[in-house]
Amino acid sequence: MHLLLSLGVFWLLPLALTLEEDSPVDCFPRRTVLYHRDNAYLFYEEGVYNYSTMLLREDLGLLMLGAREAVYALDLNDISKKQASVKWEVTEQQQNECKNKGKDPKLECKNYIRILHKMEDGRMYVCGTNAFDPECDYMSYMDGKLTLEKNTDDGKGRCPFDPFQRHASIMVDNDLYSATSMNFLGSEPVLMRSPPQSIRTEFKSSWLNEPAFVSMIHMPESDKSPTGDDDKVYLFFSETAVECDCYNKLVVNRVARVCKGDLGGERTLQKKWTSFLKARLDCPVLESQLPFLIQDTYRWCDPQRPWQDCLFYAVFTPQSDTSDLSAVCAYNMLDIARVFSEGKYKAPVHVETSFVKWVMYSGDVPVPRPGACIDNDARKEGINQTLDLPDRTLQFIRDKPLMDQVIEPKGEEPLLVRRGAKFTRIIVNQVQAADGKMYDVMFVGTEDGTILKAVNYDKEMFIIEEVHLFKSPEPIKILQFSQKTGWLYAGSDSGAVQIPLATCRRSSSCMDCVLARDPYCGWDKDAGKCTDLSSTQKELIQSVKDGNASLCQDTGPIKPLEESIWPGGNLKLDCPKPSNLATTSWERDNRPLTLSSRHELLQDGLLILNASLADAGLYHCVSIERSKTDEYTSTVAMYDVTVMPPGSGKGDRTSFPEAQRDGPSVAGLQAVVALLTICLVGLVGWNCYKGHLPVPWKNRNKNGGQSQENHEQGDLNGSRIQQDTRPENKPLVSAVNSGSSNNNHNSEEAADAENVNQPSLQYIDDESEI
Ligand SMILES: *[C@@H]1O[C@H](CO)[C@@H](O)[C@H](O)[C@H]1NC(C)=O
Ligand SMILES: *[C@@H]1O[C@H](CO)[C@@H](O)[C@H](O)[C@H]1NC(C)=O
Ligand SMILES: *[C@@H]1O[C@H](CO)[C@@H](O)[C@H](O)[C@H]1NC(C)=O
Ligand SMILES: *[C@@H]1O[C@H](CO)[C@@H](O)[C@H](O)[C@H]1NC(C)=O
Ligand SMILES: *[C@@H]1O[C@H](CO)[C@@H](O)[C@H](O)[C@H]1NC(C)=O
């Protein structure tokens, strides 16, 4: 009983701890959808891994999926249906050569498909790492068959050697633009356009300095351009800052761009980009000093609007382990274009013989403007192509490719910040809600194999749900969206999945449907269903900005479920929380239930132990969820509990209330204890993972060092358990109530501890005040 009692206190911890998560810096998903087969269509093949390259062939109704040593053509409407596949395996000889160069034969000496692009003639261009000897080939899909032409190109400079190295590529007008490493060691980075008009970056640290390439995007800037501008290709990456005046290596984010029509210079910059310009990109996260690093981007454009109105969404993760936050920032295309077309340049200044400082360049800038594409003004001067550019312009750009101005995100702050599993990929879809307004919905993949669906409502971050796509946590390696089918496609090491943008039927009540604030979903009063907006003309109840559920009518009285129990027995009353943001409470006979030592409040219900006659009554489980406008209360479950009086029914049982044969028994109690213990372990684990409880081996506190030590001391020999079990003799109800205030107090204490380096005992003592 003692043990059970202390376990009960543990159950209250997450309740109290979730309150801490309301801090403005990050955001918690309203709903968590656990893995279920029916959440997604799944594709994987036995023995094949690393499904991390995708090409949408909406014209063929296919999803091309590149994995390790294989390419698949899957039905775009149901990717579990394989239409065709082709193997591209390394030969034994290639594998041996790779092995002899010191690489892992089972892991690195394989052919990882890394590039899949559509050619103008409908064929596809495929590249693979090919046992550290990258190669490219043409592939066609005809009569239900995928064929590699065996007409191979050297993949050097197009595809990485190392399957673990990041790269980026894009096909524009049949020309492959690639950003990767050109050599076996992975030490010679390049941004290049493949032959026939081959052109590349200078091998200089001021151009690319230990970069990690992320993505490439083509912008059709020549379209109706009044200045006769050219199309551009943008490259997002992170690299070691050359301009940093600092002791340690500092990595920063960059966006670089080149002009599509660039042919290189005549004498200076021969076969090199004359239009390579780059600028720093920031995503300021409140608590971090080091810049967060870019991991993926998504270009969102309204087809009705000019390219200047496009937005780039990007996910960022910290560059050191001291933080477990991830963020999403969005950038206006126009802000980026302006920095390149009008901004100042940075220039290196030799301060001492060996020391170079990068400062804003304020001298004369040659004409044509260095790095600009050939436009009407240049043509007027007789400069029809980059080969005609004067040396002065070319020398300038060769030495000063970095812009001075830093590109800040739209609104100057992240759209989404979340503590926990790192963000890996992002897709954004715009949808019109019932209020007639358009909302950008972010779908963010994480290292745990979850997809977060989130919206930023007037600077309020809101995560509608978090869906677990895979059985066990594994990083989302690629995310794609098909405008044509309206499905999302995600790939990981173990498989690929296809999920809808919205699953409105996850909400079964009007309240839940409206409080979910999902712009795709609304409550259909007549049908009594949460429905996809696009599937109906009817007016639906929705309130995405405010979460105002006042139009939801009372569902009417729900019928209580009958439960009966023997004295001395145990009974669990289920009450699943409709939302992570809701709290539940119990009433008996319309009065708040006074919890005694025989009651266990569970995450998803109430456990009555060692029942007595006084436990009979009508139980209500009430959920309370606060939205922006109001607090909404709804009855989740109702139970009519009767306790069989001793002597009723089977007389012989009365003298053995804890009979072994049926009903609640010692075995049952043991099972409950075992279950609780398992849950407890899980819970403690979860809390440790979330950073609510300190763990010696994994410190998730932002300020690292000191506080980690503090926590470790309090942790090493299990004093943590003690601290949590101490308040066992206080009534549980008061524990709930004091939970919130105490918790705030605690987080303050924790913050204090970080600043002042208070001894660990302080921390424990505070905890015990719960
Ligand atoms: C490929 O998948 C395997 C199995 O999950 C994993 O161990 C390996 O790290 C992956 N390789 C790459 C390059 O991601
Ligand atoms: C540039 O093009 C114009 C018209 O196409 C032509 O008249 C002119 O000679 C060209 N200039 C050079 C330097 O090639
Ligand atoms: C159950 O409750 C009765 C009295 O209500 C008490 O005598 C008994 O010791 C309790 N049993 C357990 C296992 O706590
Ligand atoms: C919520 O919606 C109802 C009905 O539309 C409206 O009367 C009420 O003012 C709204 N409440 C708030 C706080 O906006
Ligand atoms: C556990 O705590 C005691 C004091 O309470 C201390 O003497 C002992 O060294 C600690 N054990 C470990 C493994 O740190």
From TrEMBL:
Signal peptide: 1-18
Sema domain: residues covered: 31-501
Residue span, Ig-like domain: 557-637
Regions of compositional bias (Basic and acidic residues) in chain numbering: 650-661
Residues covered by region (Disordered): 643-662, 699-770
Subcellular locations according to the entry: Membrane
Primary localisation category: membrane
Gene3D superfamilies: Immunoglobulins, ligand-binding face of the semaphorins, domain 2, YVTN repeat-like/Quinoprotein amine dehydrogenase
Highest taxon of the lineage: Eukaryota
Coiled coil: none
InterPro entries with a match to the protein in the record: Ig-like_dom (IPR007110), Ig-like_dom_sf (IPR036179), Ig-like_fold (IPR013783), Ig_sub (IPR003599), Plexin_repeat (IPR002165), PSI (IPR016201), Semap_dom (IPR001627), Semap_dom_sf (IPR036352)
Comp. bias intervals (Low complexity): 734-745
Keyword Signal (UniProt): yes
Listed GO CC annotations: extracellular space; plasma membrane
Family according to the record: Belongs to the semaphorin family.
Protein name stated in the entry: Semaphorin-1A
Organism: Sphaeramia orbicularis (orbiculate cardinalfish)
Gene behind this protein: sema4e
